[in-house]
Design goal:
Number of helices: 7
Structural class: mainly alpha
Strand content: 5-15%
Largest sheet: 3 strands, antiparallel
Strand order of the largest sheet: 1-3-2
Helix content: 55-70%
Shape: globular
């Protein structure tokens, strides 16, 4: 039998549960929208990152999502076949595939993003700028900092990572 894990701070267990519930609710609206068109969370992640980083390479997307080519292939093919994503050859290396959302893809991205932004705005509406910075700092620290800092140049304008690992 494995030893039972006890948090150093009793509140930490509450944070674990709150993160589960927050994620469940944060993703519920986009899940419902995607379900109507036969897509799932993998499609959502591709739509989100291709939309926030137009022209990103397939290799960069694989690195960002930390998935295998095989895992991405089916999802990307569906998004291309249904007209949400288009690919183009890279400017220097024609073998490199660059990804872009189509008009339909951007419309879907906005539809998926809208309820999430409303939820975030509602949760943060009464916080001061300093309190918002604390929330950002906490969320950044929850991320694998090696990967976050390595991909700092890939954040859309306004979301660049500061040198200390916090987004601006």
């Amino acid at each position: 039998m494995l030893p039972r894990v006890h948090p150093q701070n009793p509140d930490d267990f509450d944070f674990v549960e709150l993160l589960f519930f927050a994620y469940r609710d944060f993703i519920s609206d986009p899940d419902a929208i995607l379900d109507e068109i036969g897509f799932g969370r993998a499609h959502h992640r591709v739509i989100h990152f291709v939309g926030s980083r137009p022209g990103m390479s397939v290799a960069d997307l694989l690195d960002t999502l930390r998935i295998t080519k095989q895992s991405l292939a089916r999802v990307l093919k569906q998004l291309i076949d249904y007209g949400y994503v288009r690919q183009a050859a890279g400017p220097e290396d024609r073998r490199q595939r660059r990804l872009f959302l189509t008009e339909e893809g951007e419309a879907l991205r906005q539809e998926l993003l809208s309820p999430q932004l409303k939820r975030i705005d509602g949760a943060l509406e009464n916080l001061t700028a300093g309190e918002r910075d604390i929330v950002k700092s906490f969320l950044n620290r929850m991320c694998n900092t090696r990967k976050v800092s390595e991909s700092a140049d890939n954040f859309p304008q306004g979301h660049k990572m500061k040198s200390k690992g916090t987004r601006s």
